[in-house]
Specification:
Length: 395
């Protein structure tokens, strides 16, 4: 007969979910209470305040959507885009493509600004699109493209958008807490994230923040929002101020205990310290992987510290290597997706997983497995290369 499910503990170094901090798992196991219980309402208020801190915003509408990052993306578009609206979407990977698909499904018209996969969004191309499409009122782009390991310059892109008097939608699913996200300083209008990347919380929630300009556009729609569940007019009645909250949907109570704990952990560490930790571990991993002979697909100054995309050595069966890493080391790394499927590995160093022990585990496990597969790699030098980065950081 069926029995309780007990997964083998893994080290999660893929594109997400990342390793969940034990404190978060413990928090999620606490007793479920009613979602309109005064104690729960206090928790909701704290979550909103903590989310404002990590997003670096004073936006009142800063809440977790009760569904994964993809729902945050969908909520952003469904609330702001009406049929016929023209939207500029910058695409340099899989997730920009999904943004464009959201616009099309809502009956909007997409102006695609394309960049090579593995490169940042080019601000000049966006500037050109803003000039040639003065009627495009919304611009969307991905800050941290998890499919390629690229970081785009969100401050510069948001600046162009607001200077042109348009609204920005920014995907910060992978960036939040792993590198700087400064919603108010950027002047970003709508920003969404996810819990399962650098927040190191369980998958299934999507923090979202929206400023007054975007709310104005939402309030002045002539057609109702096409999704009932994601209509932020209704969601705000639930997550809004004070005791007047009315039932919208049943909040995922225990999942929110987990989010609260993960936000506390992020604030205890400090955002700047977290970004620095992600960067230090990235540099060590990078030194180790390059010493092995693996090549990054992204130029150095555009790399994401939390997601490292490297090419597959010649003659190596990439899926077999991932399978062997899982079987022999309980280590998960990610495969390529979209145009990069079969061409790269994606090694995540997200949130709680961004630790020196994981850097050394990943480098040594890859060295062992690639050696078993007779890959042409440099043996016996990678650990020293990573170690040198940590030693230099201490000086
Ligand atoms: C993971 C991810 C998403 C989707 O989040 P889910 O929680 O998987 O739905 C969206 N955008 C980016 C950039 C991501 O990395």
């Amino acid at each position: 007969m069926y029995q309780s499910f007990n997964p083998t503990p893994r080290t999660l170094m893929g594109p997400g979910p990342s390793d969940v901090n034990g404190r978060v798992l413990t928090a999620m196991a606490r007793p479920t209470i009613g979602h309109l219980d005064p104690e729960f309402i206090r928790l909701m208020d704290e979550i909103k305040a903590l989310l404002q801190t990590v997003f670096q915003t004073e936006n009142e509408l800063t809440i977790p959507i009760s569904a994964p990052g993809s729902a945050g993306m969908e909520a952003s578009f469904v609330n702001l885009v009406s049929p016929g609206d023209k939207v500029i979407v910058c695409q340099n990977g899989v997730f920009g493509g999904r943004m464009a698909d959201n616009v099309r499904r809502l009956g909007g018209q997409v102006v695609l600004v394309e960049d090579t996969w593995g490169r940042a969004v080019d601000p000049h191309k966006l500037q050109h699109a803003l000039q040639t499409h003065p009627d495009a009122e919304i611009v969307a782009f991905v800050h941290a493209e998890t499919s390629t390991g690229v970081m785009s310059d969100a401050a510069e892109l948001c600046g162009l958008v607001s200077d042109a008097g348009r609204l920005s939608i920014v995907d910060c699913v992978t960036s939040l807490v792993g590198c700087e996200v400064a919603v108010d300083d950027w002047g970003a209008d709508v920003v969404y994230s996810g819990t399962q990347k650098c927040l190191s919380c369980a998958p299934g929630l999507s923090p979202l923040t929206m400023n007054e300009r975007a709310i104005e556009r939402l309030k002045s729609r002539s057609l109702p929002v096409a999704s009932w569940f994601l209509d932020l007019n209704l969601v705000m009645g639930y997550w809004g101020e004070g005791q007047t909250r009315s039932y919208h949907h049943t909040a995922p109570v225990n999942a929110l205990y987990g989010l609260h704990e993960s936000l506390l952990i992020a604030c205890e560490e400090g955002l700047a310290q977290s970004w620095a930790r992600h960067r230090r571990n990235h540099l060590a991993l990078c030194a180790g992987l390059e010493a092995l002979g693996l090549e990054f697909i992204v130029p150095e100054n555009e790399r994401l510290p939390q997601l490292n995309a490297v090419g597959i050595p010649a003659g190596v069966n990439e899926a077999l290597v991932r399978q062997q890493l899982l079987q022999q080391f309980n280590l998960e790394i990610g495969a390529g997706i979209g145009a990069l499927a079969g061409k790269i590995w994606r090694v995540g160093l997200m949130g709680y997983a961004s630790r020196a022990e994981n850097v050394f585990l990943c480098i040594s496990a890859l060295e062992a497995i690639l050696s078993q597969n007779n890959a042409a790699i440099n043996r016996g030098v990678a650990i020293d290369a990573a170690q040198a980065i940590y030693e230099a950081a201490q000086d």
